[in-house]
Write a structure and sequence with these properties.
The chain has 14 helices and 15 strands. It is of the alpha/beta class.
């Protein structure tokens, strides 16, 4: 198969879909790799490294799309790329369609086969391609929350871990998935007073065994959220419903309960955000303030640590990319139900129900639209 690796064009996105090592693996399996020039520079990978791994360097995204049977990105397809999409071409990347109707319509109109990293789901409900970036984002969320608590950034002037004789900051983590667990670990490690809430009692039982003793685990409810917001210095929104819009768990009214100079970090912003007052920001202008509460809502947080993120992402995506390339998308999806759950658009049909519900677009089950054989 001819596989194209595109340079990211979303603002301030420095990750790349494959490392030179990943390219080497796919080339060794008999595939042809086209890599857009300078695609890896932001992650510290030079063009020469891709050439040494067996890739052909290509000057433009138009040529990548025109020649490739499968294209790989990190972030969603941007409007400037819609015109390049074509019928039958595999698009393999993070899509986050529930919060992006224009992209959804463009993918449907093209007739392409759009497979989203974030909705590939194993039988035990893990999201293996979302997990590494969730780990990065969860850890980063605490760093950013600590930074914006500083007075020079408009915060309350509270040190996250405190010092002897002075109480540490109170950190509220909403959601006990991969993001929330990593955020709680990081905040606990820095010495903060951490509370994690989740609506799944079994998950809380599991977390009680793996999180440090200074992390309090509480069953989530609207009343609990309101009470904890009053005391929180940093609130990390880490609620995910795979492929669907995030629920709005903190409203504009809730901000009136919070301390001035406290910080909201919305890690769910790619899925529309779990704070009512959230809107996407970027690394060069990451925060804004509403009712005295600082909001951080950067949509590609892991892009700030691009090398770590790219290495972690390739580790996760490479086996699935190899399966798609080696077997073809039809056989790969028919043989691997986890991968099949990643199918969001197929030949003009939306195939992921949570996206259809969010955007009011009819959907079909993937089994109805994927042929029995290639």
């Amino acid at each position: 198969m001819i596989i194209g690796v595109l340079k990211e064009i979303k603002a301030e996105e420095n990750r790349v879909a494959l490392t030179p090592s990943g390219v080497d693996v796919l080339v060794s399996q008999g595939h042809k790799l086209l890599v857009e020039k300078a695609a890896g520079i932001g992650s510290g990978f030079a063009d020469e490294e891709y050439q040494a791994a067996g890739a052909e360097l290509v000057a433009t995204p138009a040529e990548i799309y025109a020649r490739s049977e499968m294209v790989m990105h990190v972030k969603e397809i941007m409007p400037a790329e819609y015109c390049y999409l074509r019928k039958g071409q595999i698009v393999f990347t993070y899509l986050h369609l529930a919060a992006d109707e224009p992209q959804t319509r463009a993918l449907m109109a093209s007739g392409c086969i759009a497979i989203a990293y974030e909705t590939i789901q194993t039988a035990d409900r893990r999201l293996p391609l979302l997990q590494p970036m969730s780990e990065v984002a969860g850890r980063m969320a605490v760093q950013e929350g600590a930074k914006y608590l500083e007075m020079i950034e408009g915060g309350r002037g509270v040190l996250l871990g405190g010092v002897p004789g002075v109480e540490p900051a109170k950190v509220l983590v909403i959601g006990g998935g991969i993001v929330g667990t990593n955020a709680a670990k990081m905040a606990c490690g820095l010495g903060a007073d951490v509370t994690l809430i989740d609506a799944n009692l079994e998950r809380l039982r599991y977390l009680s065994d793996v999180l440090p003793a200074n992390c309090k685990l509480v069953m989530s409810s609207p009343l609990t959220i309101r009470e904890l917001l009053r005391e929180a210095d940093v609130v990390i929104g880490a609620v995910l419903i795979p492929g669907a819009k995030a629920p709005k768990l903190v409203t504009r009214e809730h901000l009136k309960l919070m301390k001035r100079g406290s910080v909201l970090v919305d890690v769910a912003i790619d899925q529309g955000g779990c704070f009512e007052t959230s809107h996407a920001t970027k690394h060069s202008d990451p925060v804004y303030t509403i009712d005295g509460v600082i909001h951080y809502a950067v949509g590609n947080m892991p892009g700030a640590v691009a090398r770590t993120s790219t290495l972690a992402l390739t580790n996760a995506t490479l086996p699935y990319a190899a399966k798609l390339a080696g077997k073809g998308w039809v056989a790969a999806l028919r043989e691997d139900e986890a991968l099949a759950k990643g199918l969001n658009v197929c030949d003009g049909v939306l195939t992921y129900a949570p996206v259809g519900e969010a955007l009011n677009i009819p959907t079909k089950r993937w089994e109805e639209v994927v042929p029995q054989s290639a």
